[in-house]
Design goal:
This protein has 121 residues and is mainly alpha-helical. Helix content is 37%, strand content 7%. α1 crosses α3 and α2 packs across α3. The protein binds a DNA duplex (13 and 13 nucleotides) through α2, α3 and β2.
Length: 121
DNA sequence: AGCGTGACGAGTA
DNA sequence: ATACTCGCCACGC
């Protein structure tokens, strides 16, 4: 009897890795979907996005953002609340018009996976 | 088997 | 700044 169906009671290893990376992103910092995929050296931004969409609820999903710094549709305010609470560098539009929510300042918030913990900076 | 869709990315107009 | 196209990979119909 060959098991033709893969196990479903555990998350796919790829998903587990993606969640692990998302979970190790320090507060006040963010990683793009593409960066996570690149950091894992496997899959692509879309694949990471899929994992986050399915299992992101188990990790600080707001720390995984799009490359253009746009907030997640439908969770903009939720994510924004976390960003302000964590001190994530935001780039507020000069023209703070309604409907024009601030974007993440990727240049400052982007984290490349270098924790530098234990070191002495 | 093909086709459309998506929590994407980068390039070009 | 926005809009559109192409490339990418996995899933559902």
């Amino acid at each position: 009897m060959s098991e033709q169906s893969p196990p479903a009671d555990v998350l796919p290893e790829y998903a587990e890795r993606v969640l692990d990376v998302a979970d190790r992103i320090p507060p006040g910092r963010v990683m793009t979907y593409g960066d996570v995929a690149e950091w894992l050296e496997d899959g692509g931004p879309r694949q990471v996005g899929r994992v986050m969409a399915l299992y992101g609820g188990a990790v600080p999903w707001w720390r995984v953002v799009r490359a253009d710094g746009a907030l997640l549709p439908g969770h903009e305010l939720g994510a924004l609340d976390h960003y302000r609470a964590e001190g994530t560098p935001l780039k507020e539009a000069s023209r703070a018009a309604e409907g024009h929510l601030p974007r993440i300042d990727m240049r400052r918030a982007r984290w490349d996976g270098d924790d530098r913990t234990g070191g002495h900076t």
